[in-house]
Amino acid sequence: MVKVGIIGSTGYAGQELVRLLLGHKEAEIVWYGSRSYIDKKYSEVFGNMFEIVDDKCLDDNMEELSEKADVIFTATPQGLCASLVNEDILSKVKIIDLSADFRIKDVSVYEKWYGIEHKSPEFIKEAVYGLCEINREDIKGKRLVANPGCYTTCSILSLYPLVKEGVIDPDSIIVDAKSGTSGAGRGAKVANLFCEVNESIKAYGVTTHRHTPEIEEQLGYACGKEIMINFTPHLVPMNRGILVTAYGNLNGDYKYEDIKKIYDDYYSKERFVRVLEKDVCPETRNVEGSNYVDVNFKIDERTKRVVVMGALDNLVKGAAGQAVQNMNIIFGLPESMGLEQPPMFP
Question: Does 223 qualify as catalytic in the annotation?
Fold first, then answer.
C-alpha cells in the first residue's frame, strides 16, 4: 500500500486527488494538508466527503510528512514546493508537484514568466516532466516529477505526433484554448465570480500566459530545436474542461489517411488518449470527470494547414488524474489503477 500525503488538499486539484485516491486499491491517504483549514475536518470543507473522510486538515510540514508518506503530492501555488523541498526530504519520499516549479528546465525562463525567484534550482535538472504518454520510461522510479499543466497537456498531446514526425512547421503553430473556471483555482477572485463570468467568454493572458514556454519547450524537444508559438487561452463559464484548437502549416501534401496513421501509431496503445473517428470533433462533455484526452484533426486543403483539436478535464488528466497516473508509473503499479472511471454524462 502506497502511503500518500497531499499538500494543498483543499484546492480544486487537491480535492480531485482525494476523490481519485479514495478509489485507488493500492493507495492510502495519510495527510490532508491545508494552510487555510488546519484542524478543520476535511468533510466540513468539502461536504461531498461527509461520512467518507473523517480526518482533519494538517499543515504543510513537508519534513514531518516525509517520515510518514511514500509520496507527496503538492497541489499548491507556484513557488511553494520549491521553497519546501530539500535533499533530505527527497532522500525519503517521492514528490509529484502539480505546480510549475519544476516543469521548465531554464530557471531564467521560469523566473521571467512567473515573476518569482526559484528557491531550489538545483533540483530542476533532476525533475522529470510527467507527461506520461511521452516520458513514461523516464518517470519510472524517479523521486521528483513535475506534473504538466492542463492547457499544456491538451496542447502537447494533440500536436506531438505531427511535430515529432515533421508533418507541420512548429514555428507556425497557433494554439487557441478554452478553459472552465475551475482552472483558475479555488481562491476568491472578483474576475471569477458567477456574475462576472456567466453568459460571457473572454481571452486572457494574451501573449503572456505562463503555459506558453512550457508548450514551446516540450514541443521543441519533439522537433529538436527551439520554437515559438502563439498561445491564447479563453475563460468559458463552465466548471470543468479544456478545449484546444491548434493550427499548423503542413510541410507536404498529406492526406487524411497519412495523418490518421501517425496518430494511431502514437496513441493506439495508450489507455487514456482517444483518437476520434473522422470528422468527429472533441467535446469537453465527453471527457468530464475522466482521465481521457480526446484528439482529432482536419486538413484544410485550401490553406495547406491542419487543424488539430483536443479535449480533457482540467482537474483530472490536466491535474490530479495525471498525477495519480505518474504515481502508478513511479511505483510500478498498473498505470490505469484508480483512473478507470468512464466520463460523466450529462
Answer: no
